[in-house]
Amino acid sequence: MSRIGKQPVTLPTGVQVDIQGSTVKIKGPKGELTREFSPKVKIEMADGKVVVLRPSDEPAMRALHGTTRAILHNMVVGVSAGFSKLLQIEGVGYRAEMKGKQLVMALGYSHPVEVDPPSGIAFAVDEKTRVITISGADRELVGQVAADVRAWRPPEPYKGKGVRYVGEHVRRKAGKAGKVG
Q1: Closest CA to 77 of 4, 162, 136
Q2: DSSP bridge partners of 131
Q3: Helices 139-150 and 59-80, packing angle to 10 deg
């Protein structure tokens, strides 16, 4: 058995699960998520917990078993607590601010970079520390939006300027060696 797949997903208070065949809808205080899973695995409710069952021990089935359970767990955590990613802006003249719900960044281009949040995603900016917080209920979407924002100006290796994840280590390179003699 898959070590991850055989563990049941416990539901915190305030979270409701609706299973319709291979479609699972999870509702909680932070929002509502719906996802279609493979019909090969069976998703059931048992004793107030969500259980994922697989029909055989084929390698593909075992992989699908653990993946399905992990995605269900992320959906439950997302609608109850939510997910967030922190991005930090480094560089002279680089900054970010909010214009309504829109994120507006100055990243060294001739124009400001404006990012509209997709539905279910919220931006917050601490202008003093130049930290952008991206939060939402869908873990996959939060990570993708953070990667898209970072892609506007990834950190460069010489001065470290750009948008990076908080805690990300950027490998620095030495510049050109000085002329000797």
Answers
A1: 136
A2: 88, 126
A3: 80
The SS3 call for residue 57 is coil
Task: Label residue 181 exposed, middle or buried (CB < 10 Å: 0-12, 13-18, 19+).
Answer: exposed
The candidate with the shortest Cα–Cα distance to 152, out of 161, 170, 139, is 161
Mean pLDDT of the chain: 92
Give the C-alpha distances (Å, rounded to integers) separating 11 from 20, 81, 138, 158. Answer: 18, 12, 17, 47
What residues of the chain score a pLDDT lower than 70?
A: 1-2, 178-181
| Cα–Cα nearest to 7, from 69, 76, 78, 75 | 69
Given a contact cutoff of 8 angstroms between Cβ atoms, the answer to whether 64 and 41 are in contact is yes
Rounded to 5°, angle at Cα 102 from 101 and 108:
150
Domains of the chain by range and CATH? 9-80 (3.90.930.12), 83-165 (3.90.930.12)
Which pTM does this prediction carry?
0.88
C-alpha–C-alpha distance, residues 95 and 103, integer Å:
11
Assigned token pair, 92: 């002279």
